[in-house]
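As the next step, I selected for study one protein, both as residues and as discrete backbone shape codes, as given directly below:
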Amino acid sequence: MRYLIILILCAMLTVSCNSDVRYTQQSSEIETVKQHINNYNDMNYDLAFMADNSYSFFNTKTDSLSKNDLIAYHKANDANYSSRGFLAEDQEFEMVVTDRGDTWVNAWLDWSGTINGSDKAIVIPIHLTYKFEDGKITRELGYWDPSPLMDEMEAIAAKSSGSSASGGGSASSASGGGSASSASGNGSASSDSNRPEVTEVSTIEEMSASDPEAAKMSADQLSATVASRLRNPNFAVDENSKARIRLTVNSANQIVVLGVDGGNKDVKEFILDRLNYYHLDYEFSDKLKAYSVPVTLVAN
């Protein structure tokens, strides 16, 4: 009997030793993610550890970045900061294997950045997660609250212009009416306009005067882009599905949402998801100016 018990215990030990690790804080995959973080801090975008078919999603479920797009994305964002990087303190990493056998590495980090024109370091907690297949990253997801950065950009705008970037209550729709125009071209929008219109409300940074015709063309293009990006909301809309968006186009030719006035949680999240840091596919001529965009979301 004693020998039988010993044999059973040995068998259990053997099964335990041979079973797959479902959770750990030490693995080659974790070391790969740490190197990825270090590369970002050093502005060294060596992506050899990412699969060619990898995709990255940052604060969005719909707009992905391919491996080829990722370097351009980071370099464009770098143009906004005098310094930025993940802090060495309080970093946490873990690797888990799901019931389906998928391998993920989770990272909890603090990111610090100083926007050009400011001396204030913004610290933001960030959650990153990576899916691994055959030792390489195939999927990268990042989640953080960008509102502190938006608030600081708006403060810079107000300081530079001597007034609030929102322009107060006097800002009106360029379409000439007090009511917001439809973001999808339906609803109560006037017949000669199928998009929200932009109205310049303040200057973020002193710039040489633009050609008026070029400026008008840029405003029309920006209106069309906002309308296109805000089509097909993924939630039920009602009479409260409208807001006034304050935005700018940064030096990297990306839309940056400075704030969303009005609208419920779904509206605000939808606007941020579709517009914030969206890279324009044309060269916007009047960068670094703040615009007010009244929009109303309507069902298709």
In short: The chain has two domains: 21-145, 150-296. Residues 1 and 7 are 10 Å apart (CA to CA). The chain is about 30% helix and 30% strand. Helices lie at 2-18, 28-41, 67-78, 147-161, 212-229, 265-275.
